[in-house]
Specification:
Helix 3 runs antiparallel to helix 4 and helix 6 (81-88) packs across helix 7. The protein has helices spanning 3-15, 19-32, 37-50, 53-60, 68-77, 81-88, 100-117, 137-167. It is mainly alpha-helical. The chain is built from 8 helices and no strands. The chain folds into 2 domains: 3-117, Alpha Horseshoe (Serine Threonine Protein Phosphatase 5, Tetratricopeptide repeat), CATH 1.25.40; 135-168.
Length: 168
């Protein structure tokens, strides 16, 4: 479903008092459009309706006009840089940010996470639901599947053998 159609449904859900449904739709949009700051802002506003300042701060973190108390609540809940980096659910380069402030925030979080991890980290990781194949993972996946198949066949053989012994 296109972004505009889903946002229209969000508006209808909010007008009808279906805040949890609107929140769920917006969460889906953030995962599909992680670089759309307007969707993040809308999700932050919905969490504000819930009375959850940490989550409101999470989704408003890249906005210059964010609420300081919500930002503090977010930073307290996600106290380490790696936790914040995961919580922001940003994928792709910081250059995708549509505002300079958002780009600076993302760069600061990434730099702090790199310092905490002791090696450079990047936002270019696979979003939830999208698998990135690494070199050689095809054969490893094949071996894992073959091992599972052997285990299932061994279980079935034991089970059938048990049934035969039971009725003998």
């Amino acid at each position: 479903m296109p972004l505009t159609d889903t946002l229209a449904r969000v508006d209808a859900d909010l007008a009808a008092g279906r805040v949890p449904v609107a929140r769920q739709r917006l969460r889906g949009l953030v995962s599909s459009f992680p670089d759309d700051l307007m969707v993040r802002r809308r999700l932050g506003e919905v969490y504000r309706l819930y009375g959850e300042p940490a989550e409101a701060g999470r989704w408003m973190y890249l906005e210059q006009d964010r609420d300081a108390a919500e930002t503090s609540a977010f930073e307290a809940r996600y106290s380490t840089a790696p936790q914040r980096m995961r919580a922001l659910a940003w994928y792709g380069p910081e250059s995708l940010a549509s505002s300079p402030f958002a780009g600076e925030q993302l760069a600061a979080v990434r730099a702090a996470c790199s310092d905490a991890m002791g090696h450079p980290v990047d936002w270019d990781m696979a979003p939830p639901g999208r698998r990135v194949e690494s070199e050689g993972s095809g054969f490893g996946g094949f071996l894992a599947g073959a091992g599972c198949l052997v285990a299932v066949l061994a279980f079935l053989a034991i089970w059938v053998n048990g049934l035969v012994a039971l009725f003998d």
